[in-house]
Design a protein that fits this description.
- The protein is mostly helical.
- It has a domain at 15-45.
- 56% of the residues lie in helices and 0% in strands.
- The protein starts with 9 loop residues before the first helix and ends in a 7-residue tail after the last helix.
Amino acid sequence: MTKRTLEGTSRKRKRVSGFRVRMRSHTGRRVIRSRRKRGRARLAV
């Protein structure tokens, strides 16, 4: 059986697109706001 070529790391994922990272910048906050407005169950990773 071959190994999957693309495997994400949870630490990297959190650091790039976690909630606290999103809240740092203006555009990140805009992302959270739009996802709230849309009624997403998950706002960030």
